[in-house]
Amino acid sequence: MTDDELDALLTPSDPPLDDGRREVIFAQTLPRLRPWRFRRLAWPAVFAAGLAAGWFAKPTPPPERIVETVIEKEYLPAEPPATNEPLAQRPPDRLELDAEMATDPATSALLFRQAGDAYLKANQIESAIRCYRQHLGEAGADGRIVRADDSWLLTSIKNSKRKDDDHANDGL
Amino acid sequence: MTEASENWREHGLRGAALAGNAAAWRTLYDGAFEAVAGYVRWRTRGLADLADDVIQEAWLTAARKLSAFDPDQCRFAAWVCGIAGNVLRHHLRSRTSYRRRVQALGTADPAAACADHKREQAEQVAVALANLPERYERALRAKYFDRLSVEQIAAAWGESPKAVESLLTRARQAFRDAFEKHP
């Protein structure tokens, strides 16, 4: 390539762009320019819009449930009365019920015995026998020993029970 | 208008345009349009469709990125010309890869190939200019596009005429090499 050819290649020769095209391009640039005023506020606006949308779209809390709690008072057996507690302070049926509700066999045995004594004092022999039999069942072997403070009915039941146990194997 | 007053003028126009003042943008646009269009036409060397696309895209980019323009660094027209140069380089890359794909299919019509010769030559010039180092491109631009004499270029750049002459010689040779290297 000679210098003249190179000069011909590099020398501008094109006609200038017409004014119509120039105006078209100018009109196209304007919309690109104008949003700049708001561009600085764009991200804060998006953030605020997101917050607002989140605020309005938040799930409404379900209506508060009213729960009525009915507390049924559990019947708790009373503490076993001291041995020197007067029997007349509790009715015999209450003593029997306390004995049935007691979880401790020793307590239950003691309450059955007191219930039997109370029934005997009230001249309810059958109820007294029922309570004494329960007493002997809960007290075990130690409860079958005849004591000085045993009532005549309890002594009789203990003797009868002992005889039954002694002759239980006679026929075999 | 002195350099300092031009600097302040472009600062003011830039600020007003960024604030949405269309008249200020119009002033900047009108003041730089011919320079930018002429530069792009020179770089595209007769490829009217390419020049049109590049001018349009360069101005749209300039409007979008006006906040990045710093009048302390360069004149507005030179800034837009820089954008146009980048846009042109991107377009030429796309066109070159497209042309290679088309050529790989073979030329079916020899007459059409002859008709495209001028177009291809223009594209060769554009690609060669785009591939030149920036200093060489500046020298050729001052000489052929701005039509400055060697003495004028030397005075503007603060260099000796001898150095500018030497630079132009090397720039021409580099262009020649790039032009002939381009398929």
Structural overview:
Chain A is mostly helical and 172 residues long. Helix content of chain A is 59%, strand content 0%. In chain A, helix 4 (92-101) runs antiparallel to helix 5 and helix 6 packs across helix 7 (152-166). Chain A starts with a helix and ends in a 6-residue tail after the last helix. Chain B has helices spanning 3-18, 22-44, 48-64, 76-104, 110-115, 117-131, 134-145, 150-157, 161-181. Chain B is flat, with a radius of gyration of 19 Å. In chain B, helix 6 (117-131) crosses helix 9 and helix 7 crosses helix 9. By secondary structure, chain B is mainly alpha-helical. Chain B has 9 helices and no strands. The longest helix of chain B has 29 residues, at 76-104. The mean pLDDT of chain B is 83. The chains are: A mainly alpha (172), B mainly alpha (183). At the A-B interface, helix 1 and helix 2 of A face helix 2, helix 3, helix 7 and helix 9 of B.
Question: Which features would summarize this protein structure in a list?
Answer:
heterodimer; A: 172 residues; rod-shaped; B: 183 residues; mainly alpha; 9 helices; 0% strand
Short overview:
The complex is a heterodimer of chains A (172) and B (183). By secondary structure, chain A is mainly alpha-helical.
Oligomer: heterodimer
Q: Based on DSSP secondary structure assignment, what is the total number of beta strands of chain A?
A: 0
The helix fraction of chain A, in percent, is 55-70%
What is the residue-mean pLDDT of chain A, rounded to a whole number?
80
Q: Strand percentage of chain B, roughly?
A: under 5%
Instruction: Tell me about the largest β-sheet of chain B.
Output: none
User: Which class do the helix and strand fractions of chain A yield?
Assistant: mainly alpha
